[in-house]
Every structure is written in structure tokens, then in C-alpha cells.
Design a protein that fits this description.
With 99 residues, the chain is α+β, with helices and mostly antiparallel strands. 10% of the residues lie in helices and 19% in strands. It contains 2 helices and 4 strands, in the order E-H-E-E-H-E. It is elongated and about 60 Å long. Bound molecules: iron/sulfur cluster (SF4) (2 copies).
């Protein structure tokens, strides 16, 4: 936006557009893992259930049951590797996705 056209306050901003997506899966039903090339695998014998992987996962793809980390939602995990990088006991390994 040109500087002289910039509103003086947020109240002067024009309405934006509202995009409605019909008949598409939303939220947790939306499968976002199609482009993963590596997948995280956890060694539960090493896991100390600190939940750091759950905290740092950008896709909410860490499964927690009864306060314990039990695995991954592979329909949502994009394979970014943040969980493996941050796990303090190196219980998560990134392995190549085999199709
Ligand atoms: S970060 Fe590592 S130790 Fe902590 S819950 Fe996840 S897998 Fe287990
Ligand atoms: S690899 Fe990335 S997206 Fe998948 S569980 Fe770990 S942090 Fe989440």
C-alpha cells in the first residue's frame, strides 16, 4: 500500500475478503503429510515422557495418552524433524519414508 494511502489506525482498514472453503476437510481431518520424505520413529524404551516433542511439534502430530508420549499421527506429521532435534534423550530417529 502506498504510504499516503496508509490508514491512520486499524479502524480505517477496509474489510478484507472472506474465503469460504466448502466440502473440504478441515482442521484435524485435513491430511497434511503427503510430502513427507522422513518420518520420526520413537524408541519408547528411551523416552522419559518429558513432552518436549509434543510442545515443539508445529503440526500437533505427537500422540499423548494418559500423560505419556506414545507415537505420532502420521497423517499430520510433515517430517520436519524438530521433535527428533529437541528430544533430550535422543529417543526419536528420523528415518527415510519408504513408499
Ligand atoms: S521429547 Fe523425547 S523423551 Fe520427551 S516425550 Fe518426546 S520422545 Fe519422549
Ligand atoms: S517430525 Fe515435525 S511434524 Fe512430525 S512429529 Fe516431529 S515435530 Fe511434528
Amino acid at each position: 500500500m502506498a504510504k499516503d494511502l496508509m490508514p491512520k489506525s486499524w479502524k480505517e482498514f477496509p474489510d478484507g475478503i472472506h474465503v469460504e472453503v466448502k466440502d473440504q476437510p478441515q482442521g484435524f481431518d485435513y491430511i497434511t503429510a503427503g510430502w513427507r520424505t522422513f518420518r520420526p520413529e520413537v524408541n519408547l524404551d528411551k523416552c522419559v515422557h518429558c513432552m518436549i516433542c509434543w510442545l515443539v511439534c508445529p503440526d500437533n502430530a505427537v500422540v499423548v495418552e494418559d500423560g505419556k508420549m506414545t507415537g505420532f499421527f502420521y497423517d499430520h506429521c510433515k517430517g520436519c524433524g524438530v521433535c527428533a532435534n529437541e528430544c533430550p534423550v535422543k529417543a526419536i530417529e528420523m528415518v527415510p519414508e519408504v513408499k
